[in-house]
Amino acid sequence: MTSSPATKPLTLDEIRLDNGYMFEAGRANEAFKLIRVLPGLHWTPPTDAGKGFWSLTRYADVLACSRHPEIFSSERGIASFEPHDPAEVTGPGTGNGKMLITMDPPRHVKLRRLINKGFTPRAVAAWEPEIRTITIGLLEEFKANGGGDFVLDVASKIPLAVICSMLGLKPEDRPLMFKLTNKVLGAGDPEYQEDVPEEQRGTSEAARTTGQMGTMQMFGFFAQVLQERKANRRDDLISILVDSEIEGDKLSDEDILWFSFLLILAGNETTRNAMSGGLITLLEHPDALAKLREDRSLVPSAVEEILRWVSPVTHMARVALEDTEINGQPIKKGERVIMWYPAVNRDPAVFENAEVFDIERSPNDHLAFGIGEHFCLGAGFARLEMRILFEEILARFKSVEPSGPAERLRSNFLAGVKHLPVTVS
Ligand code: HEM
């Protein structure tokens, strides 16, 4: 669960932020607490596979980085891993520099404007009836079964249904999208390494193959959808992109495919984990759950506190475009910095009683959705989907109990939950 009690306190030497083991074991917050108080910044040394990086764990440091895209670039990728070979960083087959999230100004702003209108507060609110219907349908089925795997049966299905619908995909496409997004974002977890022989699973090579296979299969799928939309426009985001132009130039097929790839990943995996992590957190804090049952008007602020507490996306990376410094730590041009959201969201310099889960916390300026130019485009959808889910859970389940251990994802990028068995009545 979120904060498994540690058997032995972690030491600085044991901290490895470049793989998913500490996150899978639920010990990342313990590590962040240790490195947040260090002078300068914590350095993760390079390995045979990839470069080293600086870790930002203070709120002020993440603001300094996110608010200066002219110094800290997204174009060399947003995950902590950077291969040594530059061709593998921006060459064909990588999305770096080609997606909204891996693009710097000025093109980033122009690309974001193309689909902004689908994400305004008004546009998001218009989805409420459909999202509520989907949620109620899934929860009623869950209740009829007396429970099940909350991740597979509920939390993965709501955001996936919404983003697939926005992209104009058919309900039959959802299981494939679930499988492929797991391969791309859960590449390091043996459970999703089905393209690799069993005895090789769990290695970094297996992770690389799984991610590449997921990406290729996703491209194959969306290439077909794109051809269909070119022939017949529909009321969906892909059709909007087909007709979009930036300064008189149409988007290329590759631009549209990377955009679709980003949206299907960002739109479902993140919110799924916010929902599952949120339920785990409420089960671990029965007083908060009881308070929420008594006063459901607290659901919106509980959602914000869940986002702070869970921090479903654990990090975003940037690369320094010039020599600079953060917190007195010199950073050389070309070095990578990682913004750790779970760490900044528990920074005691900003959050009073940061280690207390408080569903009435106010103010609650967490950075779970990032900040600055790249602030999460889908934050409104994530908040709405989470609010509806917890409202409807409270409305129909008198009790929710764990019926087995939660299984976490082996990833340092997503605070993922793969399975969460519960009984409900
Ligand atoms: C709880 C759920 C979510 C979390 C925690 C989350 C987190 C984030 C974070 C931290 C960023 C910032 C990237 C950066 O600074 O480099 C981001 C960007 C983004 N998110 Fe989300 N996200 C969530 C849900 C969604 C949903 C539901 C969608 C789509 C429907 C979405 C679409 C995007 C897109 C397109 C970007 C890139 C924006 C840009 O680069 O301008 N996200 N998200």
Describe the protein's architecture and organization.
This protein is an alpha+beta fold and 425 residues long. The chain has one domain: Orthogonal Bundle (Cytochrome p450), CATH 1.10.630. 45% of the residues lie in helices and 11% in strands. It is built from 17 helices and 14 strands. The protein has helices at residues 21-24, 28-36, 59-66, 87-90, 107-115, 121-125, 128-144, 150-155, 157-166, 174-185, 204-231, 237-242, 253-284, 286-294, 299-310, 341-344, 379-396, and strands at 42-44, 53-56, 72-73, 147-149, 245-246, 249-250, 315-320, 324-326, 329-331, 336-340, 400-402, 407-408, 417-419, 421-424. The protein has a 5-stranded mixed sheet with strand order 1-2-10-7-3, with helices on both faces. The chain has a 3-stranded antiparallel sheet with strand order 4-14-11. A two-stranded antiparallel ribbon has the order 5-6. A hairpin with a 2-residue loop joins strand 8 (324-326) and strand 9 (329-331). Helix 7 packs antiparallel against helix 9 (157-166). The relative contact order is 0.18.
